[in-house]
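Assemble and predict.
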Amino acid sequence: MRPIPPRALSPKQITLDAISIGLATGTYGISFGAISSVAGFSFWQTQTLSLLLFSGASQFAYVSVIAAGGSVTSAIATAALLGVRNGLYGMRIAQLLIPNLSQRVWYAHLTIDESTAMANRFDQSQQSAKRAFLATGISVFVFWNIATALGFLLAQSITSPEIIGLDAAIGAGFFALVAPRLTTKEHKVTALIAVAIAISFTPVLPAGVPILLAALSAALIAVRGGK
Amino acid sequence: MSWTGVLAVSIIAYLTKLSGMLVPQRILNKPYFSQLALLLPTALLAALTAVQVFGDNKQLVLDARLAGLLAGAIAYKLKATFIVIVITAAITAALLRLFLGFN
């Protein structure tokens, strides 16, 4: 991520950017609420995932692994592995904003893809970075949770998800999440190996397990890259 | 649906974020860990895409979901937003089932 000149954006502009990012992720929150409903989760379970787990890809993975017949354990493991990157983001935010201990406790909850990316744009100015991080984190949190509730309630009126193609929407949703990540050769090769592993083991292992095995492709490529 | 799982996965996700906040900076400098943390979502999301499109109760099948994915991929290439990609896939699959008898 290339930093843009910090003076180019006023505090007001940063807030406006944060709101538009929140609105954009909100549309994804509608999909999550709908799919969680179709997967059989209750309203408050769905809302709890958005309030407490608060990491889109992990939430999506958790409900879809269970909907596909996977065990709770493999769903938790998949969601937890997807969240490992948030730990890395936490390190970056701690380095960038130098928060005190109590700030670290609640900043951690807002540490997601969008807030970290926004803060990273201002690595020249700690004050702007902090504003960008907090405004984006809070904006995404608010819109994400409203959208989750809306999506859940919309899907409640649908009786048969196959008829309106909601099952096809899940695969396309994961595709839309992974496609923007395929920017380097490492990411492309990792994705190809992961798909091969997942497809090969789907007929022989319990649902959810092939996805966990596919995580090995990341370990493999990371080892090669480290040399 | 189990509340235990919902709460457990939420707590683990938060502790993962917090651990990053509290870890000494030195560990950040190990290239293997940062590379792994960035490649993990790529691997898992690619695998989830494949299983959601081809998997059906431990079987691999070709049905309207694949056509939905292809339509979604075209929408992505045309720089569509997330919700448009998802809706394009859903409508494509629904129409193929309704009019062409796809599974």
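Strands of chain B lie at 55-56, 59-60.
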